[in-house]
Structure formats: C-alpha cells, structure tokens
Amino acid sequence: MKDINDFSELTLSELLRDGGFDCDCGKHHSIGVKDVVIGQGVLVQLPELVKKHGGSKPFIFADKNTYAAAGEKIVEIFKDSGMDYTCYIFPQEHIEPNEFAVGQAAMNFDIDCDFIVGVGSGTLNDVGKILARVTGRKYIIAGTAPSMDGYASNTSSVISNGIKVSLPSACPVAIVADLDVCSQAPMRMLQAGLGDMLAKYISICEWRISNLINDEYYCDKVAALVRRSLRKCVESAEGLAKRDPQAVANTIEGLIMSGMAMGFAGVSRPASGVEHYFSHVWEMRALEFGTNWDLHGIQVGIGTVLALKAYEYMVKVQPDFSKASAYVEKFSLDEHHAFVKQFLGSSANDLILQEKREGKYDKEKHAKRLNRIISNWDKILDIIHEELPDRARVEKMLKDIGAPISPDALGFSCDLVKETFRVTKDIRDKYSISRLAWDLGILDCVADKLC
Questions:
Q1: Which of 7, 57, 169, 425 makes an SS bond possible with 129, Cβ 3.0 to 4.6 Å?
Q2: Contact, 215 vs 292, CB < 8 A?
Q3: Which among 117, 157, 108, 119 is positioned nearest to 138, based on CA atoms?
Q4: Cα–Cα dist 309/280, whole Å
Q5: Residue 168: exposure state from Cβ atoms within 10 A (0-12, 13-18, ≥19)
Q6: Global pTM?
Q7: Tens digits of per-residue pLDDT, 289-342?
Q8: How many C-beta atoms lie closer than 10 Å to residue 393's C-beta?
Q9: What is the pLDDT of residues 126-171, one digit of tens each?
Q10: How many angstroms separate the CA atoms of 298 and 404, rounded?
Q11: Cβ distance 193 to 81 under 8 Å?
C-alpha cells in the first residue's frame, strides 16, 4: 500500500489531490493545478473544464503560430459549445517574455471575461500566469509543445529591466496537452523539452551541494519526484525524433511533474542550476547587443553539457585552503563589476545592486563556506557521482533527436563561453558550480576546461 505522504512515488493524478502532502522536510507541499489532461483529441474538453472551475466567459490568447496550431480549433470548440469568449492574438512574429508582452495581454484583456485560456508553451504560459495573477482570474493552459517545464509551476520566467528573473504568478488550475497538437510541434521545440529535462541532473546535484555547504532548504521527496520525471523523459527520448505520441506524452508528463516539484518546494531550485544560467546570460546579451540566441531549452541542453564538463574537472580537484584564500584576497570586486558591465551592458547594473544585497563575495562568508567545503569534500564528490550521468550519454541523447550539443552551433566562441561561465555566478543568489569554483579559487581553471 502506498504511503500517501510519500508523493515521490505517486502517479500524476494522485499528485493533484486536494489537501496536499505533509512532509518530513518540514513543509506542507501543495499545488494549484487540479486537472491534467494528456491525450489525443482532448482540446474538446476545454469548455467543460472552464465550467468545472467556475468560468463562463474565457479570455483566449495565442500568438500567430499557436493560433494556427491549436487556437483556431479551440475557438471553434467554444463556439460549438455555445460559450461566449473573447480572443486576442499577439500581432508580432516573436514574443519576448518581458514587460511589454505582459502589458499587451493586460491592455487587451476583456474585463467581462471571468476566466483565462492560454494557447502555447513557454513565453505564452509565463505571460498567462502573470495575467491570471494580476486579474484574479483562474487560468487554463492548452499546451502546444513539450518544450519546457513551466506548465505547472507557480512562477514565471521573464525579463525585467534586462535581467531574467523568476516572478511569483498564478498556477494554472488545469493543463490540457493534446497529443495531436504537441506531436506536430516544430522539432526544435521537442529538442528543447528534452534539453530542459536533462538539466535536472545538474539542478538536483547543485541543490544537494548547497544544502551541504549553505544549509539551504532541501527535500529528498521533491528531489526524488524530479529524478522520476527525468527518468520518464530519458526512457522516451528516442521516440521524440519519430514524433511518437507515447514518447511525447511521457515527455510532457515529465515536464509537468518537474514543474509541480518546483511548486512543492516553493523555489525553482529542483529544476534549474548553472545550466539555466548559461541560457539566461545568452538571452540577456541577445537583448542588449542583438547577439545570437535560441530556444531556452536548446540553450539549457548545451548548458547541461557544459556543466557536466565543469564537474568532470571538479572531481579531480583537491581543495587547497591557502590557495583559495589567496585567490579571494586578491579578487577585486570593482574589476569584476567592470567586467560584468562590459559583458552584459545595462542589465549589469541591477545584478550589481543585487550582489550588494546578497554579499556573494563577502570574505567572512567565504571563509565559512570554504571550511564547510573542505571538511565535506568527500561528501560533495559522492553527490556528484550519485547524481550526474556520463557526459557522452547526455550528448548522445541530444544528438539522437538532432539537438545541438556545443555552443559552436549557436555561434558562440570559446572565449564567450568562458566569460559566460564567470558571469553565471552573478545571475541569482543560487549556489552553483561557478560559485563553488570561485570559493575554491579555481574559477578560471574550470572555465578553461569548457572548450
């Protein structure tokens, strides 16, 4: 018989139960999602789901691509059901997850609507969750691609003042993933979904390391749920290249469960680590300088390969207290801030203010961390070996579905990759391998091993 509070072993439908779960980590875990519908032809269930959750007139929004993929059919379904609605289609070809897109949605929102239905995946879902929060309406997302893990999370990854941030937002009450639609998503989006899931190897590893070094909150059951969702995706990876509906279904379920894990933990830690920060930095540079960028999950997949390279070097390191202390003593915060400004442009200003609040480079805090690192080095190595797969295996999974594995594929030079790694430690107050490398005085050594 299942232990109902050991949610790491429960099915997706069981995870949605009212009341949530008491956990020995000290938190009560719950999620705002009440229904997840995955299957072929399931878009027809949308009107009944809106009614079930108290809606009578939905505000439907999509972009040009998602309207063609599913939005037009959804509008017809609502027409046939006799339910009134308002539909808004973003006019631009590409939507950035920023204040402008949120403003567009808010300014075009019909206040007579008592419900929101989003049609899309990453950016559109992030916008929809924020719109739901500011309007107080319930929200359903009709997913159009297995491209990211944010469907079920209660945060939105958006760009604010040029910085990629995670903002509190509304959780959808229902997620509808029609396999007839999702299986036909652009292959780049299927590749992105796998890339976003492979990142979980790194995120769980770094979460455990930070728990050991910094006493950061950690939950074994949430981590186990993420590992299980990752396994489900990895086992189906080959089928994605063939657009196999079952492989797509397994990937979507894994991504949704990963998003639920973030909701359970109350932080993004279970699902993102340094690999996400590679992507965030590249997106920030693209906004500032018009440089290359790609889908978030594509960049995260490459970031995962880079992170695995960094950890391959890290396991060969023997911590040296004197070397690390001398490195930090010589470290010039002013010079580093000048480098960040040159590398990121105007968005660096907010990062610098953020660092002043957090004190990442405080020498007294560093000394405490360094003592913890050295005294627990064997345990840190155990965590790395327990959580991380062989890099060649990850590269093969990505290659098998046609996804890029090298920054070269995005037009990024070796020097840019090294500089990106140095900046990843500044993006958020989350302990990652770049912060660990700085603490050990080997940041440049690790950067040099990335290409």
A1: 169
A2: no
A3: 117
A4: 19
A5: exposed
A6: 0.93
A7: 999 999 999 999 999 999 999 999 999 999 999 999 999 999 999 999 999 999
A8: 11
A9: 999 999 999 999 999 999 999 988 899 888 888 787 777 778 889 9
A10: 7
A11: no
